[in-house]
Design a protein that fits this description.
Layout (H helix, E strand, L loop, with lengths): L10 H12 L1 H9 L12 H13 L9 H9 L10 H34 L4 H11 L2 H6 L1 E9 L5 E8 L2 E4 L5 E2 H9 L2 E3 L5 E3 L4 E3 L1 E9 L3 E7 L1 E3 L4 E3 L4 E2 L3 E3 H4 L14 E12 L4 E8 L6 E5 L2 E4 L2 H5 L9 E9 L13
Parallel strand pairs: 3-9, 4-12
Antiparallel strand pairs: 1-2, 1-8, 5-8, 6-7, 9-18, 10-11, 13-14, 14-15, 14-18, 15-16, 16-17
InterPro entries: Papain-like_cys_pep_sf, Peptidase_C19, Peptidase_C19_UCH, USP, USP_CS
Keywords: Membrane, Transmembrane, Transmembrane helix
Organism: Lates calcarifer
Length: about 350
């Protein structure tokens, strides 16, 4: 692992880069991406991300030159010298990557189409889907497909809508929580009454209803967002209450009834490989990360340019309750095997 210097309050982005570097599937997709005409484009987030992740993979003892990536985000309105929310920046990076890879792909496709038409061949039917699919690969790594059901309590009619999430936003209670209980709460039915009533097409008016979520598919990389910040009209405060989380868990054992009838995945077991940690208060604080090394499976602590080996016991201290350094985002990888080897979990 390589450290990243804090440049104009960049601890949030530094921490996310450490998690993205640990998500080697992202770097693998970017490595296959033909940059072509975007080389040297200082506004291209996927290009600059590709460069910085490649630098983080190298064995050089020097700190990673990541200022180009930070300035690139700044040009895309993720400003330097600003305190950011890690989950918001993470989702922005994923969206920039897809949009800007799509943009460049489409430019390349236009040239390709003209060339193919000029040659009067039918290669267009083969090339078109190959380019478009690659731009979706990174988001697909994180995509949680869900089916939302809204049942009217007056006429019992049901409205169904399919959508997807790139991170799982979990509400936490101001008490002791566990990851398992937070996931169960997210997926259980909620009754919507009074100002929360929804429009029922059958009744022609807003009616009380019950809303529930079913899982259509689980992602390869599960990003969990522990919603520790509460906003009011006056200020935003941080919840330091305890949220325990395991090194490994099986989704199917937590929520047996939360799967759609169309759910077809057999593997639902996840292993933790990164934790984004927030210390301080809602309006000002600092981000660090715990990262599980891909090869030796040991935990490491990344605090900007400082990297040191850590233990599972130190990771557990980010549960909250007693310490101000609290887990804010959790990164889990589906499947219990990495590169054909079983990860050694802490005892």
């Amino acid at each position: 692992m390589r450290g990243l210097t804090n440049y104009h309050l960049s601890c949030c982005v530094n921490t996310l880069l450490q998690t993205l570097s640990a998500t080697w599937e992202v770097a693998d997709v970017l490595e296959r991406w033909e940059t072509g005409g975007v080389r040297g484009d200082s506004h291209s987030v996927p290009l600059q991300l590709k460069n910085v992740l490649a630098a983080m993979r190298s064995d050089s003892p020097q700190h990673v030159p990541h200022r180009d990536f930070l300035h690139c985000l700044d040009r895309n309105c993720v400003r330097l010298n600003t305190q950011h929310d890690a989950d918001e920046v993470f989702l922005s990076i994923l969206n920039f990557v897809q949009q800007q890879m799509d943009d460049k792909t489409l430019v390349g496709l236009q040239s390709l189409l003209f060339f193919i038409l000029y040659l009067y061949t039918c290669v267009i039917y083969v090339c078109l889907p190959l380019f478009l699919c690659q731009a979706l690969e990174i988001q697909d790594l994180y995509k949680i497909s869900v089916e939302t059901h809204l049942r009217c309590l007056d006429c019992s009619s049901v409205q169904t809508r399919s959508s997807y999430l790139l991170s799982l936003p979990l509400h936490i209670k101001e008490d002791h929580n566990s990851l398992e209980s937070c996931i169960s709460s997210f997926l259980e039915e909620q009754e919507l009454r009074d100002i929360n009533r929804c429009f029922c097409a059958q009744c022609g008016t807003k009616t009380p209803s019950k809303q529930g979520v079913k899982l259509l598919s689980l992602p390869h990389i599960l990003c969990v967002h522990l919603k520790r910040f509460r906003s009011s009209r006056v200020y935003t405060r941080k919840l330091d209450c305890r949220v325990s989380f395991p090194e490994t868990f099986d989704f199917s054992e937590i929520v047996r009834d939360a799967f759609s009838t169309d759910f077809a995945q057999n593997e639902c077991k996840y292993t933790l490989y990164a934790v984004v940690v927030h210390s301080g208060y809602a309006m000002y604080g600092h981000y660090t990360a715990f990262i599980r090394h891909r090869t030796n499976q040991r935990w490491f602590y990344a605090d900007d340019s400082h990297i040191q080996q850590a233990s599972w016991e130190e990771v557990q201290k980010t549960y909250g309750g007693r310490y101000s350094d609290t887990a804010y985002m959790l990164m889990y990888r589906r499947g219990s095997k990495e590169g054909g080897q079983q990860p050694e979990l802490s005892s």
